[in-house]
């Protein structure tokens, strides 16, 4: 997803699901509050529908999910075709799993931010600014990602069903987009953290 790979550019005005996090001060109490809200979002997502540190790990996770998705399809004995509703059900479960992994990535990055901020000479205001920019851009990418996946799914099952091979390709496509988002989020976080250190280091340091 090229657009999602390049959207972490500091845009503003986006809301991550139901809450705006632009004004959070990342002290420990607010951190706990933020994480509680994030977990609540995931729990709410589950009601209606029942960490990546390198590119190598990203590919391994994607491969594992593809194998699991293929197993789901085969285990259900769907034959040569799969209906729109059946594929949607499989993808809804996979999407919940992908959102949990994104949540884990964000929580790990937030922990790194608190841990590394003193070393990088970043104060509370700086932490808040950096983290808010990351969340705004993740939100934008999630919206683009979900739109692209939904469009691809609707095009695939426009006749009401698709072949099993086509459904596997779709699940491959969707898992790749989510994995790329997590990888890009991690990479952009560290890039921005390094830029913050350079900007706070002073002219002669």
From TrEMBL:
> Which InterPro entries does the UniProt entry name for this protein?
PRESA_N, PRESA_N_sf
Q: Which Gene3D superfamilies match?
A: Plasmodium RESA, N-terminal helical domain
Q: Does the keyword Zinc apply?
A: no
The reply on keyword Chloroplast is no
Keywords in alphabetical order, please: Membrane, Transmembrane, Transmembrane helix
What span is annotated as the signal peptide, if there is one? none
Which residue windows are transmembrane per the record? 21-42
Q: Which residues form the Plasmodium RESA N-terminal domain?
A: 76-187
A family per Pfam: PRESAN
Q: What is this protein called?
A: Plasmodium RESA N-terminal domain-containing protein
Q: What organism is recorded for this protein?
A: Plasmodium relictum
Organism lineage: Eukaryota, Sar, Alveolata, Apicomplexa, Aconoidasida
